[in-house]
Specification:
Blueprint (H helix, E strand, L loop, with lengths): L1 H14 L3 E5 L17 E3 L4 H13 L3 E7 H6 L2 H10 L4 E6 L17 H5 L5 E4 L4 H12 L4 E5 L16 E4 L4 E6 L3 H7 L5 E6 L7 H8 L4 E9 L4 H7 L6 E7 L10 H7 L4 H11 L1
């Protein structure tokens, strides 16, 4: 996903005079080196709060800033600047993160960020995306480049085998009965493996905020239970899913990254297993919740 982002960003810088890229000493620093677009790639160094302020200034100047670094340094550390410089001033920007919840697990807790979607969900006017395939990344980045709003695109090293349209809607992937599993972003393949057999239908979205409430309510008709499998902090989507299904009588459950500290850094697969987000772990949760 990160390689595809760099390829698409390079093309946007070459073809769109509004496109700018702000970095914090991490990422494709020389992406436009030797080209007329070189001045529109700004490396602020390891000054994450300043990075957001610079993006706000570029937006005020009529440019379209993309801001890229690891999720905790892009969302958590400069959150006050995101809240004030971008949201409060109603300025547009595109934040593009890497690291997801625990992709950089070997780097320790400093590089883990399961709470990014929950945190940004507290701010108005944001579109938050968790693509599950490089093709989805390209579609989202190109669309964001032609817009003026505030978007967050969360890149991951975990990928699904199949890409879906990035239209913000919830798509039915596997028909079934009894329980509807809503898989978000890169957890689709694991959810499909976990839900194999009778009794489970599987749907997919890469845009948890704003959630396709109408689509979810329509798809959930006839099901007893909806289980949301989310690649970030468990329960992040609880309020919006609950609002969508209010009065329907459907039981709602969430499977995601737990709040407990996992101090065995290991690899991303180890963290997925420890949080119960690999296919066997999701299956155990589905069976336990049934």
């Amino acid at each position: 996903m990160r390689a595809r982002f760099s390829t698409v960003m390079s093309d946007l810088l070459a073809t769109d005079d509004r496109a700018t890229l702000v970095l914090a000493d991490i990422g494709p620093l020389d992406l436009a080196a030797g080209t007329p677009a070189a001045d529109r790639v700004v490396n602020v160094g390891i000054r994450e709060q300043a990075m957001i302020g610079v993006a706000a200034g570029l937006s005020l100047a009529g440019l379209r800033p993309f801001v890229h670094t690891y999720a905790p340094f892009l969302v958590e550390r400069p959150f006050e600047q995101i809240k004030l410089d971008l949201s409060h001033q109603d300025l547009g920007a595109v934040l593009v993160s890497i690291g997801a919840s625990y992709d950089a697990a070997a780097e320790g807790r400093t590089h883990q960020c399961p709470g990014d979607i929950a945190l940004l969900s507290t701010l108005p006017g944001w579109r938050l995306h968790t693509p599950g395939h490089p093709d989805e990344v390209e579609t989202l980045v190109r669309a964001a480049g032609s817009s003026d709003d505030r978007q967050y695109i969360r890149l991951s090293t975990q990928e699904n085998r199949r890409a879906f349209p990035m239209d913000g809607r919830i798509h039915l992937v596997h028909a079934g009965t009894g329980t509807l599993v809503l898989a978000i972003g890169p957890l689709l393949d694991a959810a499909l493996e976990a839900a194999a057999g009778e009794g489970y239908a599987v749907a997919y979205t890469a845009t948890p905020v704003p959630l396709d409430r109408g689509g979810l309510r329509e798809l959930s008709a006839g099901f007893d239970r909806v289980v949301v499998v989310e690649p970030f902090l468990e329960g992040t989507t609880a309020a919006t899913v609950g609002a969508a299904l209010r009065g329907s009588g459907v039981l709602i459950e969430h499977v995601g990254v737990g709040v407990g500290e996992q101090r065995r850094y290991g690899a991303p697969a180890d963290h997925a297993r420890l949080h119960g987000l690999d296919a066997p772990g999701i299956r155990r949760r589905l069976d336990r919740l049934s």
